[in-house]
Structure formats: structure tokens, C-alpha cells
Amino acid sequence: RAVQEAKSGRVEFRLDRSNLVHAAIGKASFSETQLMENLSTLVGEIVKARPSDIKGQYIRGATLTSTMGPGIQVDVIPLLELGAQN
Fold first, then answer.
1. Please, what is the angle between helix 32-48 and helix 76-85, to 10°?
2. How many Cβ atoms are within 10 Å of 74's Cβ, its own excluded?
3. Which residues are CB-neighbours of 85 under 8 A, at least 6 positions away?
4. Across the chain, which distance is largest between two alpha carbons, in Å?
């Protein structure tokens, strides 16, 4: 079952000690549409998993990067709106 889920594209994410989420959203061969869909799904799931007792802004910053490339800061407000659409 785990192998089938992995082949179908299931990705799990967890917070590390410093409350950072590291998750892959695609590969270089993916189209822009596929990457945007994966990103919106990831953000939507993170927002959905937010504990109800947390106050204030839940996602404070976001950075996209390739495996060995430099990180690019992403504006959080449009990212949250993207996740809300999902």
C-alpha cells in the first residue's frame, strides 16, 4: 500500500525543530500548472492542519528553492490566497 501511495504522488510533511516545513512540490520536468497545483495543495493542507488555539499569522514566510539552488523569497499573502482556493 505504501509503495502504491508513493507512486501516486503522496507526500508527507512535518515541522522540524525550528518550525520549518521542508517539502518537495515537483520536479524540473513538471509543467508550471502542475507545480502551481502542488504548491496550492501543500499550502492548503498546512493551513487546514493549523491548530485552533493558534492566534495570529500562521505562515510568516516562504522560500522556494531547487535542490542545490539559491532560495527565492515568496510573498506570503498571495501564497495564502492560493492555498485558500484549494
1. 90
2. 13
3. 40, 44
4. 40
- Counting every residue, how long is the chain? 86
Helices (H), 1-86: 2-8, 32-48, 76-85
d(CA 33, CA 56): 31
Residues 13-36 have pLDDT tens digits of 878 888 888 888 888 888 999 888
42 burial type by CB count under 10 A (0-12 exposed, 13-18 middle, 19+ buried): buried
Q: With H, G, I as helix, E, B as strand and everything else as coil, classify residue 9.
A: coil
